[in-house]
Amino acid sequence: MKKLMMIGKVGCGKTTLTQYLNNKELSYKKTQALEIVGDVIDTPGEYVERRSYYQALAVTSVDVDVVLLLQDPTDMTFALAPGLKTMFQKPMVGAITKVDKVTDPKQMDRARKILELCGAEPIFTISSVTGEGIDGLIRYIEDLDTDEK
Known about the structure:
Elements: E1 4-7, H1 14-21, E2 35-37, E3 40-42, H2 46-49, H3 54-61, E4 66-71, E5 92-96, H4 105-118, E6 123-125, H5 134-143
Parallel strand pairs: 1-3, 1-4, 4-5, 5-6
Antiparallel strand pairs: 2-3
């Protein structure tokens, strides 16, 4: 698998997806610092929520192939910076997580708009609990030509 850096707000599903991709038992734990699990770098949500940590994200991204920006559609707050992609010299793919918890289609539309504003493309819909959409996301990332980015 290509090396990924997952970024997103606290509670958006970065650690759960990291566990899923590495065939680990799904269990919630608060990520306190950068964690490397296999080919995935799991970042604390505070790194993207507080601009004073942006430098840590930019430096960490140097060693990855793809930045994966996650958005929880049930989170009604907006804390991601528009144009966030410009901070990275790597492709930034978006993932709307927790699709198994969506109760209103407007939640999906809102999450998609947030990821688009940040510059993520394409955008996948996934669930780390059911596995929905993850195969397509991984296939896309594996097929991505990151040597030219």
